[in-house]
Design a protein that fits this description.
Helix content is about 10%, strand content about 40%. It is mainly beta. The chain has a 9-stranded antiparallel sheet with strand order 11-12-13-14-29-24-23-18-21. The chain has a 5-stranded antiparallel sheet with strand order 1-2-3-4-5, with no helix packed on it. The chain is globular and about 55 Å long. The protein starts with a strand and ends with a strand.
């Protein structure tokens, strides 16, 4: 494997890793994944050629590291250690993905470590400041992207805070395993535990109101199309409302998503995975917006959105002053044999 750095305009760098069969590209802007190409198939949505124009204005969080807080916080409000906080309501009336000053907008410092063939790491670092995003305390954040010879992409998050605060990071990558990036309805999901948390009328999840996808069908895996079309479940009304999934999942030890050609394996130590099927693609008025509904799906490993208001002091997203945060998520792409 070898690495190349391309300096584009506007301070954006592309860090390109090539292991002959696969190529993966990251950026210092948002510590994001830009491209993951397996031979002739780009399995994530993004833009390498015009990255310095593409990523600054689009509203879709393509491949970005998201935080402090992935997902919504109801009305941007929460209480922590007896104090009340009001965040920016950038997804009215809610706070979404850390707000306008979230990690997706940060230029990260970075260094590259090469294991001489086994794997390559990009170590991104930044500081999230209370004065900018209005959460309590500053957080020093380290995000490590590792790519290895087995076509495994691993994200590790490490953080420490100056005050007790919230930290619920994720990566907003969009996958599509189809060679022509056609709609992802033909992708199949499987896990030993596969439950969907239903949303209320405010687009916020419930802790206990769930649908067991493994019980929807007498077979596994289950396709996105089957999930979309099944009318015998409380999930159906929500899929009609949102034109697809935008829901937190609970999974078992691993989640597999596959089509006829490829298998994507995900493992994470985070309690939930938000699956969003890119339902609305028209809210970016740009010539670069070539995307159709259901042209990608996210697998965002994180704590349950709005957990601070659902679970209070028991919320997994609480990061105590002096504690060290660590989380690890791995995605592996496997080509199926003919």
């Amino acid at each position: 494997m070898f690495t190349e750095v391309e300096h584009q305009r506007n301070g954006l760098d592309l860090i390109k890793i090539d292991n002959d069969r696969a190529k993966i590209v990251f950026s210092n802007y948002g510590a994001r994944i830009v491209s993951w190409k397996y031979e002739d198939n780009n399995i994530v949505l993004g833009n390498v050629v015009e990255a310095d124009e593409f990523y600054f204005e689009n509203p879709f969080y393509f491949g970005a590291s998201v935080g402090r807080y992935g997902g919504r916080i109801e009305e941007g409000r929460f209480e922590l250690d007896g104090k009340s906080y009001q965040l920016e309501q950038n997804d009215p009336p809610h706070h979404l993905h850390g707000g306008p000053q979230g990690m997706n907008r940060h230029f990260f410092d970075y260094e590259i470590k090469d294991d001489n063939g086994g794997f390559i790491q990009i170590i991104f670092t930044t500081t999230l400041k209370a004065a900018e995003d209005h959460y309590p305390g500053d957080i020093k954040v380290k995000i490590i992207h590792t790519y290895d010879i087995d076509n495994r992409w691993t994200i590790e998050y490490a953080a420490e805070a100056t005050e007790t605060t919230l930290f619920n990071p994720t990566n907003h990558v969009y996958f599509n395993l189809n060679r022509d990036n056609k709609e992802i309805d033909n992708h199949y999901l499987s896990s030993s535990d596969l439950k969907v948390h239903l949303l209320n009328d405010k687009n916020l999840p419930s802790v206990d109101d769930v649908v067991d996808l493994n019980a929807l069908s007498d077979h596994q895996p289950i396709s996105f199309k089957e999930i979309f079309d099944n009318e015998e479940t409380p999930l159906h009304a929500q899929i009609e409302k949102y034109q697809g999934l935008d829901h937190p999942f609970t999974i078992g030890d691993e989640l597999i998503v596959e089509n006829k050609q490829f298998l994507l394996k995900m493992e994470t130590d985070m309690p939930n995975v938000v699956v969003f099927t890119f339902n609305e693609t028209n809210n970016w008025d740009s010539d670069m917006n070539i995307y159709k509904p259901h042209s990608g799906f996210t697998l965002e490993a994180q704590s349950l959105p709005n957990d601070i208001n659902l679970l209070g002091e028991e919320a997994p997203s609480i990061l105590r002053k002096g504690d060290a945060f660590f989380s690890k998520t791995t995605y592996q792409i496997i080509e199926k044999s003919e």
